Amino acid sequence: MRREPFEFLGTAREYFGIWIVNVLLTIVTVGIYSAWAKVRRQRYFQGSTRLAGASFDYHARPMQILIGRIIVLVILAAYNLSAYFLPQIVSGIIGIAFLFAVPWFVARGLRFRARVTSYRNVRFDFTGGYGGAFLAYLLGGMLAWGTLGLLAPIASQWMWNYTLGNLRYGDRPIQCDPRLEKLYGQFVLPAVVFFAGVVLIVGLGVIAFVAAIGTDLDVENYLPSDFAVIGIIAAIYAALLPFFLLYVLVGLLYSAGTRNVALNETIIDGRHVLASNIGRWRFAWIAISNFFATIFTIGLLRPWAAVRMARYLAGATALYSAGPLDDYLSTVKDSEGVVGSEFMDIEGFDFGF
User: Which residues lie across from 124 on neighbouring strands?
Assistant: First the structure.
């Protein structure tokens, strides 16, 4: 097996020029330019990602993205208007119908994203249908939330199997079947961190509450009633903030682990194996520090954060190929039914789900 590492060659300086123009034109056009901004962004990031000396390409047209977003906005507006003007039972039925329509949007969106992506002039394709999306994204989400995360590895197995297992490179199949025991192995660390964090936060809260009682502080004698209410609300949000940060940390640790498992068990055309070796704590640190760097600089470091994450993920990913890729790709291009025809440019919309 021959190891071919992924590389991301983009720089924060280059992307900043693209990003700032995208932001300004999106503001000036009241959001309409966001479709063109997405195309520019995707073309830069995919064009800067290289494998075996060749980069990826993004072929979507801005109007496809804009039409997809308009469709989604119309649907959401119609649902909110129905919830406001129609009886509660009718609006509830419409909401349930919309919920069952989400898997269709997901499947179409994944197909669009695959078909507008190519590597060495060979398009990807996605063959997943409604049933798989319903299982992976609707029932899987309910299963994970309904069991407080205990069955989240099962939902992750469904999601990765659907998302990667239905991909095609040209006419060549891609298999992804992450084993459940390995996914549960990645579940242990986030679970330990979560319970330890809850114990720590609750313990500190009890100590602070006892200390506050000991001071016999009467808020109403020091602050007007309006300020007292605001102070109580602020205290509630301050108490919930540590739990939110803990949830984000646990989610990052778990998602990095499941990505490693899924990609390490993904095989292209029965001969090429993907590999992922993300450090979970390193991934969480990059994501969290990127977020705070973006917030504290009012978004000015967003290009640096995006490039930083893309470079790390590419560097932690590789492809083990059975022989030189040039020989293999020549056989893919000569195959019948290769997904590279022009109809892929106009088929479908990006719904953003």
Answer: 169
